[in-house]
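Sharing a chain and its predicted structure for anyone who wants a worked example. Both blocks are below, sequence first, tokens second.
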Amino acid sequence: MAKTRNGIVAALDIGTSKVVCFVARIDGAGLRVIGIGHHAAAGLRSGNIVDMEQATRAISSAVSAAEEMCGETIREVIVGVGGGQPASHNQTLEIQVGHHEIGERDVRRLLSQVHLPAETSDRDLIHTLPVGYAVDGSQVLEPRGMYGERLGVDIHLVTAATGAMRNLAVCVKRAHLDIADRVATPYAAGLATLVQDEHKLGATLVDMGGGTTSIAVFYEDHLVHIDSIPIGGGHVTHDIARGLSTPLADAERMKTLIGRARARPNDEYDIIDVPLIGEQERTTPNHVPRSILVGIIRPRIEETFELVRSRLEASGIGRLAGGRVVLVGGASQLDGLPEIAGEILNKKVRLGGPLRMAGLAESLAGPSFAGCAGLLIHASQQVQAVSQTQNPPVEAPAGRFGRIGSWIRDNF
């Protein structure tokens, strides 16, 4: 779990396109961001590390910038897990408690029985999230203090590929940092961006990064499903570069400044200048209508959300996912993208960003930084739980999750 040193916690979000480090102070007044650093990512592809040396340098640069801003030395970080193809598994456990009063020790003994399924031998366990308790087969909101013969729990497990997690750990270690905790990035982004009713009634968070698009479904205040697709904003940039024979840097600029996912009536008459690959000195301009750029961008965006829809349908989680989608991540800011998402997913869609975080500048409170902000919120929740109980916290406190537990048993 996350620990604080003088009330200081640090979060590190290592993405395909950028590495972000937030440092915050947790005290009686709550959570306040005091240091921020970010650097262009290098050595990563589709969320996974492909060059250890480059990735380590990018991590060190981001952390150093945050240290300089807050005047603190960072020794350990909470790391966001975006690579390694994070996936969900559901499990039901039960123990005998002998008709005595159920206490914290019984709950911990029950949760200690968690085990990875045989087919996940090459995966690391990232989260163990209780989503429903039962006493003698009856769903309960809070088992502690009750009496019964059998105590059961429905568990939601989140795993990621072991190789990817080891590479991540080595890079963080080479940057002279220890990992205090690992948190699935879309889960963290949901903590930062979803409002209370979305957590309660059901919502799907779609985190569109540079190399991956991650999915997290929340229902009854719990994460109930997670998945990822190896397509992100970087793929749109490469499509533009290939389609218009333009350098990648210019393709990224066009995507960000004038690109959009949905055509407008004047696109045929709106002319843009496209530099060509290999041109040293431009003697003749290369002009094309914006409609060509939109025609390159839209198919990739449609493909992404069609894959999101198919993954949700295949998981059987659609009923819990609700009618609400929240988009985060740098790639989600493309003009017209929420409308395309709404049409394909047949849900109400909004663009999200970190909510109510003191010390976070408005320029950094957008969709691009939701994951790192959520890592701090996760740390703050753990610190608060420890201060209340003076015991290591169960990762997900008991709540109104009886219906989720029933759904898991009925469907898995």
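Comments welcome. The chain is about 35% helix and 30% strand.
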